[in-house]
Design a protein that fits this description.
This protein has about 270 residues and is an alpha/beta fold. It has 13 helices and 4 strands.
Length: about 270
């Protein structure tokens, strides 16, 4: 039995937790060893602690971290593989997916480490599918300023790096975009889109619980609009252009394989 894998990609503070929690509504197993809630995420991270710990260790092994702007190179991937991390990752993901028809996980660090994890998924003969969680980068920057005291320029480039790596690394696989604001505003529609894209079934009682008990507008501390991003002179033009194109994809106006978007990513 080939396990279908649903991997949630995206920049930190972009709604990856809310999207991942929504996967339970469509029958995706997330495991039981999950990260606890915290002050900056009171509804929980829905992130596997073992996978998170391995990702943290691997980034440290190549002198990187989640908030470093430099991408992971092929040399870094080769270093991880030759240092035993390939075997460890195979063992861990095999343990997590054992006898499961469908398994999902998220860790924003995977966006940086996707060249490595793609090799692992291929070796394990898993069927990787991707959800790219997006959020207006001005709200991501404001959230990171509040939580991490990051400067606006750094946050914008972090957002851009995570998005580009996610789009590049997921090419050729079944994938979709979910915008955080659209999820908060129309959760039923977005969950049904997820189910339709990956051939899954919505559990109506789980959907009601997700909408009524998990999601609420208080989760969204920053809610500036696209117009605010366009007017922000600190935001790199490429970030504005790519987010605008991604928002069109998430709202169904264009496709993720749109040639203009691809040119911007390239």
């Amino acid at each position: 039995m080939q396990t279908k894998l649903i991997v949630v990609l995206g920049m930190h503070r972009s709604g990856t937790s809310a999207v991942t929690r929504g996967l339970k509504v469509v029958g995706v197993e997330l495991g039981t060893h999950l990260m606890s809630a915290a002050d900056d995420n009171s509804k929980g991270f829905w992130e596997d602690l073992d996978l998170n710990a391995l990702n943290v260790e691997m980034l440290q092994a190549v002198n990187s971290d989640w908030h470093h702007l430099a991408s992971i190179t092929q040399y870094d991937v080769d270093t991880l593989c030759s240092s035993g991390y390939f075997e460890r990752a195979i063992s861990l993901i095999s343990e997590k997916t054992c006898n499961l028809p469908i398994y999902g996980f998220k860790d924003p660090r995977v966006a940086k480490l996707l060249p490595f994890w793609s090799k692992v998924f291929s070796h394990c003969q898993l069927d990787p599918n991707y959800i790219l969680a997006i959020r207006n980068p001005i709200n991501v920057a404001n959230s990171l300023a509040r939580r991490n005291s990051f400067g606006t320029t750094k946050s914008y480039f972090l957002w851009l790096g995570h998005i580009i790596e996610s789009l590049k690394g997921s090419q050729g696989a079944k994938r979709m975009l979910v915008d955080y604001d659209l999820l908060i505003n129309s959760p039923e529609k977005e969950i049904h889109r997820i189910a339709s894209t990956f051939g899954l079934r919505v559990d109506d009682s789980e959907l009601k619980n997700y909408c009524d008990s998990f999601l609420d507008s208080d989760m969204r501390h920053h809610a500036q609009k696209l117009e605010d991003l366009i007017l922000d002179t600190d935001c790199p033009p490429l970030a504005k252009e790519i987010y605008t194109l991604l928002l069109n994809v998430a709202s169904g106006k264009t496709q993720i394989e749109d040639s203009i978007l691809q040119k911007k990513v390239d």
